[in-house]
TrEMBL record, chain A:
This is Monosaccharide ABC transporter membrane protein, CUT2 family. Keywords: Cell membrane, Membrane, Transmembrane, Transmembrane helix. It is found in: Cell membrane. It comes from the Bacteria. Signal peptide: none annotated. GO terms for molecular function: transmembrane transporter activity. It is a multi-pass membrane protein. PANTHER family: ABC TRANSPORTER PERMEASE PROTEIN YPHD-RELATED-RELATED (PTHR32196). GO terms for cellular component: plasma membrane. It comes from Paraburkholderia phenazinium. The keyword Transport does not apply. Its main location: membrane. The chain crosses the membrane at residues 30-57, 78-99, 105-125, 132-151, 171-190, 224-243, 255-271, 278-299, 305-321. The keyword Magnesium does not apply.
Automatic annotation (TrEMBL), chain B:
Keywords: Cell inner membrane, Cell membrane, Membrane, Transmembrane, Transmembrane helix, Transport. One of its GO terms (cellular component) is plasma membrane. It is found in: Cell membrane. Its main location: membrane. The complex is composed of two ATP-binding proteins (LsrA), two transmembrane proteins (LsrC and LsrD) and a solute-binding protein (LsrB). GO terms for molecular function: transmembrane transporter activity. InterPro entries: ABC_transp_permease. This is Autoinducer 2 import system permease protein LsrD. Pfam families: BPD_transp_2. It comes from Paraburkholderia phenazinium. Part of the ABC transporter complex LsrABCD involved in autoinducer 2 (AI-2) import. Probably responsible for the translocation of the substrate across the membrane. It is a multi-pass membrane protein.
Amino acid sequence: MPAITVQQTPDSQRAARRLYGFLSNQPPSWYGLGILLLVAWATRPALLSPLLLLAILKQGAILGVVTIGQSLVVRSRSIDLSISGVVVVVIWIVTSGAIPLPVPALVFLALLSGALIGTINGLIITRLRASAVVVTLAMAIVLTGSVVAASQYHQPGETPDLLRIVGSGRIGSLPIAAIVWVAVLIPFALSLRTCVFGRYLDAVGSNPTAATVSGIPSLRVMSITHIFSGLTTALAALLLVGSVSVGNTNIGQDMVLNSLAAVILGGVSFGSGKGRMLGPAVGAFMLTYLFSLLIGFGLGAAGQAMVQGAIIALAALVFTFRSR
Amino acid sequence: MNPFGPNSRSGLKPYVVSMPIALIVGLSFAATDFLNRGNLSNLSAQIAPLAIATLGQLLVALVGGIDLSVGSVISLTTCVASASVGSTAGIALALLLGCVIGIANGLAVSVARMHPIIATLSSMTFVQGLALYWLPTAGGLAPPFLPAFINSTIAGLPVSILLLLGCVIVVGWLLARTRFGLRLYAVGAHPRNASLNGVTDRQIIVAAYAAGGLFAACAGVVLTGRIGAGDPVIGAQFALATITAVALGGVQFSGGIGSAVGAFCGVLTLGLMRNGMNLVGIDAFLQSAATGVLLLIAISFQRRTIIGF
């Protein structure tokens, strides 16, 4: 009588399969950053020096903070294109000198206005059921148009010293902006994992109808993500003012595109939070590193835009083919 | 079926049609220069490129998509058409490129199942780079016959307005009288029902985006004729402007509702508002803010079933 043999997968094979599963689940930003670092190592080793990496981290912090809010909004199946408008408003509040208040009060007012704009976006999108793309785009032009019209007859004022210290100062060799980024990122990441809101967000993202039927306040969840996005954008604009110290209305335009790109690279797509908070954060750093690298290669605005467009498309393609 | 009825797929709400009429009546009283021959021909030349690009945006919106790359395609077209002086090859190449970009958008949306915003956002960025590569700064020279043609008149009417009306009639016919139009509405209203009835959404979506790209390129050619040169960033405002015009025209971005006449009314409203604010002397930045407010109001009237983008 032959003994019954149980076919057992060898441990090594199982471990390999688990490793493959783990690797293929990581967001594209990790691989992108790895490839970029390899390219830099092979061609421009100077870009790998710790000093330069910290400088890039400082620049990346601004995009990183915006990306936090944008990733939340995208996870709830909405989109925030009003970032450039919020940036213009915040810069106007803190540098125009039109509001006679001490600097801390101005900072508070800037954050408050960011939250307020987010609230209005959220209310129009959820209560009036208007398309988020159109609402937030319209909000961006309304804000930019009225602020520029209000400020065109005045010289832009000085950046307050407090913001300049936060935006471009360092503690030891660590840029303060990067510390702010991490200090905002960690509470968000932890609370989304532990609080009910994180569960709600995933439920609303994966199926809004099912979430509503199950008694989850899906409209409120979406509104709250817009408020968070307004807040983080205002914070990023404050960091921006401190690091460039000159008001410029065009910077916000790039931020909209780049934050969306970072979110997609981070493995977060409409309704799916697979990349969690860390994926988009790495995506933001990766994009900033990419721009430094492209400038290092001597690519102009044309080449940068083409590479950026190709990378967004590639990340989205990877995502869709993986989720089949 | 009554085209103004609540269940009509034309999207022609009373406000869509009454807004341009009210603006015309109001402006002819408020601004004495409005009914000037010079101002009217100026107005038609201003809105012709926008109207043609908006018709393309309409076709994309009807299948439930959105095309953010129209502005970049328009910029690229002006660069390509004016970089090769005195030849029609540049114009042909520009139209071909517009079509190819549209097909790429359509394939990304229908075959790769990318979200329309992301797909056209990436092509918008890429094509903007391509335009800057082709012509780094504004310049070049359009083929001389193009400005002469666009700025001429036939039987007392400016060519730009004839082109515009021609495009509206073609798209209106396409939507109301052809199988392609019927399928566009079917796929946009309910892709699954459409496929159960034997209409494959892939081809229709690719065709809609390809037509959108082609119309954007046509708008770029008209614009090249108007300015007589190329400019790599001239189209930057067009993505938003076409979306505004389409929204003002009662077209729903969730797909399946909209008409060529509605889109034309939207363009007219937008153009008349800009023209009127220019005549009254309102600051350019406040004008864009007012356009944004108008867009917010128009979009708030479109109650949809889905929430979000």
